[in-house]
Design brief:
Elements: H1 9-27, E1 36-40, H2 45-61, E2 64-71, H3 77-93, E3 97-101, H4 104-111, H5 115-134, E4 138-140, H6 145-158, H7 162-165, E5 176-177, H8 185-194, H9 211-226, H10 231-260, E6 261-265, E7 268-272, H11 273-277, H12 281-296, H13 304-316, E8 322-325, E9 329-333, E10 337-342, E11 363-366, E12 370-374, E13 379-387, E14 401-405, E15 413-416, E16 423-424, E17 433-434, H14 435-441, H15 446-451, E18 454-457, E19 460-464, E20 468-469, E21 481-489
Parallel strand pairs: 1-2, 1-4, 2-3, 4-5
Antiparallel strand pairs: 6-7, 7-10, 8-9, 9-10, 11-15, 12-13, 13-21, 14-21, 15-18, 16-17, 18-19, 19-20
Helix pairs in contact: 1-8, 2-8, 4-5, 6-9, 6-10, 10-12, 12-13
Length: 490
Amino acid sequence: MSAKHPVSSSSIIEKRILRVVEHTLRTHSMIQFGDAVLAGVSGGPDSVALVHILRTVALKYGLKLAMAHLNHGLRQNVSDSDQAFVTALAEKFQMPLYVEKQDVRHYQKSHHLSVEEAARQVRYRFYHRSASKYGYDKIAVGHQADDNAEQVLMAMLRGSGPTGLAGIPPVRSDHIIRPLINLRRTELLDYLAARNLDYVEDSTNRDLRFLRNKIRSRLIPELQAEYNPKCVESLIRMAIILTAEEKWIDDHILPIFKETVVLDKAGRFGLSLNRLKKEPIAAQRRLIRKALFQVKGNLRRITFAHIEAVLKMVQQGTAGDMLDLPGNMCAGRDQDRLLISKTQQKPRRTADRHFVPTVPEYAYQLPGAGEILIQEAGLRIRFNEMPIEHVSDWQQTEGQIAYMDRDKLSFPLVIRNFRPGDRFSPLGIQGRQKLKKYFIDHKISRTERMKCPLVLSRNKIIWVAGHRLDNAVKIDPQTRRVLNAELLLA
């Protein structure tokens, strides 16, 4: 009679992980037998676990696998070291590897984005380009359950609707799949330890200037300690419920949407105003969002304020009314149609009497260094105080980051958008000028003017966020303390 050997804890961990992943693959129909799957691998723990798990289930599902790694160059030698690690991992796993190096910082500045958003866009474009070029059906990325909980909290802070509160979708329409979405971060670390797999740590994950990191390291531990030890599980459960309900609602909206569409051409979409107005406000918002998605391909930078502006035009506007939307989008109406289109034309000037502003007036007060969320514009600004010795590129005067002499300003700061008659003294230019003239000279559309945050101290504009600092707070040889401001997407 043979003796029974105890099952090792590492074996139990692996079996549970694989069971959860396979259930996720089946539940969301992520893959079909024989699919070619490209795994995005940064070298971090989640992506290393992802590629190892995919290798483990590859034979059962007949998968063809490869890895893709983007060297974003943001951390200089460290980024090159990450690339070397992923290259060695691909050799160890005997998998094809596609690597590309991109200047994310240049992309960020030229597209006026935050570093996080620029890196995300460049990375996903690389993934899709590689998948198309080398013949891969799906792109697998390593988002897991804790990422999802953090995303839900970020959506709550922005005041998102059900779609945002549903969190990170397990499957996207552009062939992105997330096999690890139902696994906790600690489970993946246990899996890596059980398999004795190395990974690299991204030091930026500990940088508290980024909202997601602050939520991960401060807000969630506080919620767990003081309010609900299982708050992450609760957030994930809410996301799962809302994901299912969003799909159910979308299934019911789709036939209404088809009835409402009266124009569907490349880059141009039209909805019947009469049919649209018959629906409840909640359905009208969804139909407008769906039309925008059809033309734009995504809803990034489309905020609640933009949807409300379109809705107002539907309900109260007249033929000829038009408004500009982010991403070179335009919404307008004629006698019986709401028209959504993509345009390469320059944004309409304020002289256009039919122009409808897409961003309402807003004003916030910040009592001290910290972060402010501007829901109306889909933006946030982070303020940090530091000694001059800690600042290496304080000469930067334009763009998403600004450095000010802390002793030349005082809190509370007011953050608001444009008002008629606003003036400031642009850094490097003598005298004061109307902000409206500055916007016109720099070809900034009315929509962007109303969105642009203005930072005021003592009722004077000290920074036109994302554009130009005021002379009053410039750094000089006598500066000892610096206020660093960074404009980010919400």
